Amino acid sequence: MPQSDSPDVLKFRYKFQFENGEEKQFDVLLQAQTLEVVQHSPGANPPWTKLQFHQCHNCPLKEDIAYCPVAVNISHLIEEFKFSTSYDKTWVVVETPERTYAQQTTVQNGLSAILGIYMVTSGCPILDYLRPMVRFHLPFATTDETVFRAVSMYLAAQYFRERNGLEPNWNLDGLVKIYKEVSTVNKGMWNRLSHASGFDANVNALIVLNTFGDALRFSLKRDLENLSSLFTKYLEH
After folding, report:
1. Contacts of 98-102 spanning 24+ positions with Cβ under 8 A
2. Tens of pLDDT along 121-152?
3. Quick check: 25 and 43 in contact, CB under 8 A?
4. Which end of the chain is more exposed for a tag (fewer CB within 10 A), N or C?
5. Over the stretch 167-197, which tens digit does the pLDDT of each residue have?
6. Which of 130, 120, 182 has the alpha carbon at shortest distance from 157?
7. Beta bridge mates, 18
8. How far lies 17's CA from each of 82, 101, 111, 116, 203, in Å?
9. Which contiguous run of DSSP H or E holds residue 175?
Protein backbone atom coordinates (compact mmCIF):
# COMPACT_ATOMS: atom_id res chain seq x y z
CA MET A 1 0.00 0.00 0.00
CA PRO A 2 1.43 3.47 -0.91
CA GLN A 3 2.34 5.75 1.98
CA SER A 4 -0.03 8.65 2.68
CA ASP A 5 2.82 11.16 2.31
CA SER A 6 3.85 9.82 -1.09
CA PRO A 7 3.57 12.19 -4.08
CA ASP A 8 1.70 9.40 -5.83
CA VAL A 9 -1.10 9.62 -3.26
CA LEU A 10 -3.80 12.25 -2.93
CA LYS A 11 -5.14 12.57 0.62
CA PHE A 12 -8.35 14.03 2.01
CA ARG A 13 -8.67 14.07 5.79
CA TYR A 14 -12.10 14.30 7.44
CA LYS A 15 -12.43 15.06 11.15
CA PHE A 16 -15.76 14.83 12.94
CA GLN A 17 -15.66 16.64 16.29
CA PHE A 18 -18.63 16.13 18.61
CA GLU A 19 -19.98 18.17 21.50
CA ASN A 20 -19.06 15.44 24.00
CA GLY A 21 -15.39 15.73 23.01
CA GLU A 22 -15.35 12.62 20.84
CA GLU A 23 -13.50 12.88 17.51
CA LYS A 24 -13.50 10.58 14.50
CA GLN A 25 -10.83 10.97 11.83
CA PHE A 26 -10.70 9.40 8.37
CA ASP A 27 -7.96 9.66 5.76
CA VAL A 28 -9.19 9.03 2.21
CA LEU A 29 -6.17 7.98 0.13
CA LEU A 30 -6.38 8.04 -3.65
CA GLN A 31 -3.96 7.20 -6.44
CA ALA A 32 -2.94 10.67 -7.63
CA GLN A 33 -3.10 9.88 -11.35
CA THR A 34 -6.20 7.68 -11.54
CA LEU A 35 -8.09 8.92 -8.45
CA GLU A 36 -8.72 5.29 -7.57
CA VAL A 37 -9.17 4.71 -3.85
CA VAL A 38 -6.30 3.03 -2.07
CA GLN A 39 -8.11 0.21 -0.31
CA HIS A 40 -7.69 -0.53 3.36
CA SER A 41 -5.91 -3.65 4.55
CA PRO A 42 -8.00 -6.63 3.44
CA GLY A 43 -10.27 -8.11 6.07
CA ALA A 44 -13.56 -9.90 6.37
CA ASN A 45 -16.18 -8.06 4.34
CA PRO A 46 -19.65 -7.78 5.92
CA PRO A 47 -22.35 -9.93 4.26
CA TRP A 48 -24.18 -6.83 3.04
CA THR A 49 -21.20 -5.94 0.80
CA LYS A 50 -21.75 -8.97 -1.45
CA LEU A 51 -22.56 -7.84 -4.97
CA GLN A 52 -25.86 -9.68 -5.15
CA PHE A 53 -27.12 -8.38 -1.79
CA HIS A 54 -29.84 -5.99 -3.04
CA GLN A 55 -27.71 -5.24 -6.09
CA CYS A 56 -28.38 -1.94 -7.90
CA HIS A 57 -30.87 -2.39 -10.75
CA ASN A 58 -28.48 -0.87 -13.28
CA CYS A 59 -25.31 -2.56 -12.03
CA PRO A 60 -23.19 -3.69 -15.02
CA LEU A 61 -20.90 -5.94 -12.93
CA LYS A 62 -21.11 -9.68 -13.56
CA GLU A 63 -21.57 -12.56 -11.15
CA ASP A 64 -17.84 -13.32 -11.13
CA ILE A 65 -17.41 -10.18 -8.98
CA ALA A 66 -18.09 -11.34 -5.44
CA TYR A 67 -18.39 -7.99 -3.69
CA CYS A 68 -19.76 -4.56 -4.57
CA PRO A 69 -16.64 -2.33 -4.72
CA VAL A 70 -18.53 0.67 -3.36
CA ALA A 71 -19.99 -1.26 -0.43
CA VAL A 72 -16.57 -2.67 0.47
CA ASN A 73 -14.93 0.73 0.54
CA ILE A 74 -17.60 2.44 2.63
CA SER A 75 -18.07 -0.45 5.06
CA HIS A 76 -15.63 0.99 7.62
CA LEU A 77 -17.54 4.28 7.63
CA ILE A 78 -20.83 2.47 8.09
CA GLU A 79 -19.38 0.63 11.07
CA GLU A 80 -17.99 3.82 12.64
CA PHE A 81 -21.33 5.65 12.45
CA LYS A 82 -23.65 2.76 13.22
CA PHE A 83 -24.77 4.35 16.49
CA SER A 84 -25.02 7.91 15.16
CA THR A 85 -28.23 9.83 14.62
CA SER A 86 -28.62 11.84 11.42
CA TYR A 87 -29.13 15.20 13.10
CA ASP A 88 -26.40 14.87 15.73
CA LYS A 89 -24.43 18.11 15.65
CA THR A 90 -20.78 17.88 14.65
CA TRP A 91 -17.95 20.18 13.62
CA VAL A 92 -16.51 18.78 10.39
CA VAL A 93 -12.99 19.76 9.34
CA VAL A 94 -11.85 18.72 5.86
CA GLU A 95 -8.17 18.95 4.96
CA THR A 96 -7.39 18.84 1.24
CA PRO A 97 -3.99 19.19 -0.46
CA GLU A 98 -4.68 22.87 -1.17
CA ARG A 99 -6.73 24.15 1.80
CA THR A 100 -8.83 23.34 4.85
CA TYR A 101 -12.61 23.62 5.15
CA ALA A 102 -14.65 23.61 8.34
CA GLN A 103 -18.36 23.77 9.07
CA GLN A 104 -20.71 23.04 11.93
CA THR A 105 -23.31 20.73 10.47
CA THR A 106 -25.10 17.42 11.02
CA VAL A 107 -23.62 13.96 10.91
CA GLN A 108 -25.63 13.07 7.81
CA ASN A 109 -24.30 16.06 5.86
CA GLY A 110 -20.68 15.47 6.84
CA LEU A 111 -20.99 11.76 6.18
CA SER A 112 -22.61 12.29 2.77
CA ALA A 113 -19.60 14.40 1.70
CA ILE A 114 -17.00 11.74 2.53
CA LEU A 115 -19.23 8.95 1.22
CA GLY A 116 -19.35 10.80 -2.08
CA ILE A 117 -15.57 10.58 -2.41
CA TYR A 118 -15.43 6.86 -1.64
CA MET A 119 -18.34 6.00 -3.89
CA VAL A 120 -16.99 7.60 -7.08
CA THR A 121 -13.43 6.33 -6.59
CA SER A 122 -14.20 2.70 -5.75
CA GLY A 123 -14.48 1.35 -9.29
CA CYS A 124 -18.22 1.40 -9.91
CA PRO A 125 -18.50 1.68 -13.73
CA ILE A 126 -21.41 4.12 -13.42
CA LEU A 127 -20.04 6.38 -10.69
CA ASP A 128 -16.66 6.51 -12.44
CA TYR A 129 -18.00 9.28 -14.68
CA LEU A 130 -18.01 11.66 -11.70
CA ARG A 131 -14.48 10.78 -10.60
CA PRO A 132 -12.76 13.89 -12.08
CA MET A 133 -14.76 16.09 -9.68
CA VAL A 134 -13.00 14.45 -6.74
CA ARG A 135 -9.70 16.08 -7.67
CA PHE A 136 -11.36 19.43 -6.96
CA HIS A 137 -13.45 18.20 -4.05
CA LEU A 138 -15.57 20.93 -2.49
CA PRO A 139 -17.25 19.82 0.73
CA PHE A 140 -20.50 21.51 1.78
CA ALA A 141 -21.01 22.79 -1.79
CA THR A 142 -24.14 24.72 -2.74
CA THR A 143 -26.32 23.70 -5.67
CA ASP A 144 -24.86 26.47 -7.86
CA GLU A 145 -21.32 25.38 -7.02
CA THR A 146 -22.11 21.77 -7.83
CA VAL A 147 -23.80 22.68 -11.11
CA PHE A 148 -20.79 24.75 -12.15
CA ARG A 149 -18.34 21.99 -11.24
CA ALA A 150 -20.38 19.22 -12.88
CA VAL A 151 -20.90 21.17 -16.12
CA SER A 152 -17.25 22.23 -16.21
CA MET A 153 -16.17 18.60 -15.75
CA TYR A 154 -18.53 17.36 -18.45
CA LEU A 155 -17.54 19.97 -21.03
CA ALA A 156 -13.85 19.39 -20.33
CA ALA A 157 -14.52 15.68 -20.98
CA GLN A 158 -16.08 16.56 -24.34
CA TYR A 159 -12.99 18.59 -25.25
CA PHE A 160 -10.79 15.57 -24.52
CA ARG A 161 -13.16 13.27 -26.42
CA GLU A 162 -13.00 15.50 -29.50
CA ARG A 163 -9.21 15.77 -29.22
CA ASN A 164 -9.03 11.99 -29.22
CA GLY A 165 -11.20 11.63 -32.31
CA LEU A 166 -14.42 10.75 -30.47
CA GLU A 167 -17.84 12.35 -30.91
CA PRO A 168 -18.38 15.10 -28.32
CA ASN A 169 -21.70 16.10 -26.79
CA TRP A 170 -21.98 19.81 -26.11
CA ASN A 171 -25.67 20.13 -25.18
CA LEU A 172 -25.40 18.45 -21.73
CA ASP A 173 -27.85 15.67 -22.57
CA GLY A 174 -25.15 13.18 -21.69
CA LEU A 175 -24.64 14.77 -18.28
CA VAL A 176 -28.34 14.44 -17.49
CA LYS A 177 -28.19 10.75 -18.46
CA ILE A 178 -25.14 10.23 -16.23
CA TYR A 179 -26.91 11.72 -13.22
CA LYS A 180 -29.98 9.62 -13.94
CA GLU A 181 -27.86 6.47 -13.72
CA VAL A 182 -26.06 7.81 -10.65
CA SER A 183 -29.42 8.38 -8.98
CA THR A 184 -30.29 4.72 -9.52
CA VAL A 185 -27.00 3.68 -7.89
CA ASN A 186 -27.59 6.00 -4.93
CA LYS A 187 -31.04 4.52 -4.42
CA GLY A 188 -29.59 1.03 -4.76
CA MET A 189 -26.98 1.72 -2.09
CA TRP A 190 -29.67 3.17 0.17
CA ASN A 191 -31.70 0.01 -0.35
CA ARG A 192 -28.65 -2.12 0.45
CA LEU A 193 -27.93 -0.28 3.70
CA SER A 194 -31.55 -0.07 4.82
CA HIS A 195 -31.84 -3.85 4.53
CA ALA A 196 -28.47 -4.38 6.18
CA SER A 197 -29.22 -2.27 9.23
CA GLY A 198 -31.26 0.54 10.67
CA PHE A 199 -28.29 2.86 10.93
CA ASP A 200 -30.04 6.21 10.76
CA ALA A 201 -27.08 8.46 9.91
CA ASN A 202 -25.66 6.09 7.32
CA VAL A 203 -28.92 5.60 5.47
CA ASN A 204 -29.87 9.27 5.55
CA ALA A 205 -26.43 10.33 4.31
CA LEU A 206 -27.20 8.42 1.13
CA ILE A 207 -30.60 10.10 0.93
CA VAL A 208 -28.81 13.46 1.06
CA LEU A 209 -26.54 12.40 -1.80
CA ASN A 210 -29.44 11.16 -3.89
CA THR A 211 -31.62 14.20 -3.23
CA PHE A 212 -28.81 16.50 -4.22
CA GLY A 213 -28.13 14.52 -7.40
CA ASP A 214 -31.82 14.41 -8.35
CA ALA A 215 -32.17 18.16 -7.79
CA LEU A 216 -29.18 18.80 -10.04
CA ARG A 217 -30.51 16.51 -12.76
CA PHE A 218 -33.99 18.06 -12.87
CA SER A 219 -32.92 21.69 -12.55
CA LEU A 220 -29.58 21.60 -14.38
CA LYS A 221 -30.43 23.89 -17.28
CA ARG A 222 -32.48 26.25 -15.10
CA ASP A 223 -29.74 26.58 -12.51
CA LEU A 224 -27.15 26.97 -15.24
CA GLU A 225 -29.21 29.80 -16.72
CA ASN A 226 -28.99 31.55 -13.35
CA LEU A 227 -25.23 31.70 -13.87
CA SER A 228 -25.43 33.12 -17.39
CA SER A 229 -25.03 36.72 -16.22
CA LEU A 230 -21.48 35.86 -15.14
CA PHE A 231 -20.51 35.32 -18.78
CA THR A 232 -21.69 38.56 -20.39
CA LYS A 233 -18.17 39.39 -21.58
CA TYR A 234 -18.09 36.21 -23.64
CA LEU A 235 -21.40 37.13 -25.30
CA GLU A 236 -20.41 40.55 -26.60
CA HIS A 237 -19.26 39.36 -30.03
Report:
1. 101/139, 101/140
2. 999 999 999 999 999 999 998 888 888 999 99
3. no
4. C
5. 999 988 999 999 999 999 998 988 888 877 6
6. 130
7. 90
8. 16, 13, 12, 20, 20
9. helix 173-196
**Rounded distance between C-alpha atoms, residue 108 and residue 205, angstroms:** 5
* Identity of residue 160: F
Contacts of residue 133, defined as CB under 8 A and 6 or more positions apart, other chains included, come to 120, 149, 150, 153
pLDDT per residue as tens digits for the range 90-123: 999 999 999 999 999 999 889 999 999 999 999 9
Task: Write the DSSP symbol of residue 70.
Answer: H
- The closest alpha carbon to 144, from 24, 36, 224, 230, belongs to 224
pTM of the model: 0.88
Instruction: List the beta bridge partners of residue 10.
Output: 30
- Please report how many Cα atoms fall inside a 13 Å half-sphere around the Cα of residue 141, on the Cβ side: 22
Tell me which H or E stretch contains 25. Answer: strand 23-31
